[in-house]
Amino acid sequence: MAKRIGIITAGGDSPGLNAAIRGVGKAAVACGMEVIGFRDGFRGLAEDSRLRLDRRALAGILTTGGTVLGTGRDKPHRMEIDGHVRDMSGVIARNYRTNKLDALVCIGGGGTQKNALRLIEKGLNVITLPKTIDNDIALTDATIGFDTALGIATEAIDRLHSTAHSHHRIIIAEVMGHRAGWLAVGAGIAGGADVILIPEIPYDVKEVAAAIRRRSSHGSNFSIVAVAEGAMSEHDAAEFESAARRKANAKTKTERQRAKTELTVLAARHSGNTLRLSKQLEELTHLEARVTILGYVQRGGTPSAGDRLLATRLGTMCVELINEKVFGVMVAARGDSAKPVPIAEVAGRIKLVPPNHAWIESARRVGTSLGD
What we know:
Largest sheet: 7 strands, mixed
Low-confidence stretches: none
Strand order of the largest sheet: 3-2-1-6-7-12-13
Number of helices: 14
């Protein structure tokens, strides 16, 4: 049986991280294990910055947002140390062994899964838990943080209805989601948005404007548009796809760098897209439009009951797997249970919203425009 395990939280912060730390920690302590938390993600492992997570340290954190361990986006193989970027994977492996760890639990999103895989290749016993408000990690039904963020975004759209109705405006609510639109679709449907725009379905701004004008002709003097930050027009999506294809098919380093630079320029141009969309809709509909960008408010606050349950369920299953010496896996949500899936099958993959997903079909049936 394992005697000592380490825990880190990496990537962006997310509601439910403390609940996950508590779930792993209390189950491990109950099994007689010692639990060590490393501060600020993988950097804490590299710098051996740690604290003991005993019963007292784990008490009272279930309902608090953020993470008591801190987090960071440092990569083990590319970490800035004293102004220089270094590969710290070997140092992390050495600190793992110096601390006599039997396993390392990494709680994080897609980037964390890839970084965990690198540590597995260094010989570490690693288990991960899926965390992100974007809900875009492959092979898991749900991710820690999504349920809370969905509730926050939905409440925001609910509140925007009254001001939109009072001022006869188009209100555009931008929610997080660079590559996947789960948050925008879920909050848009739950909040009764009239238009939902997501990265997976490139939109035609003229179709969006037409949907808003149809509402006006039927007597509705306002419209709510829920848009994911990564949503793109058909034209922009085609340009991105073309540049990405050139990068993938590049035969020389020069060709690859040129395509990479083009993608960087396109990404910079996409910044502020929601504000441009607002101006376009004003011109096409002759209605006043206002933008609300929810931003980091979606990540904060008290985790929902759903996220506390999920974090506790996955955390306790994680300890069970450690006791069974099952490593190199992510603890994935499967209905009301959990299942270990190989991290190698998760790393580098994204769970996108399928065009025929039940949520998309439901949105269309209630008359919501997807912009296509």
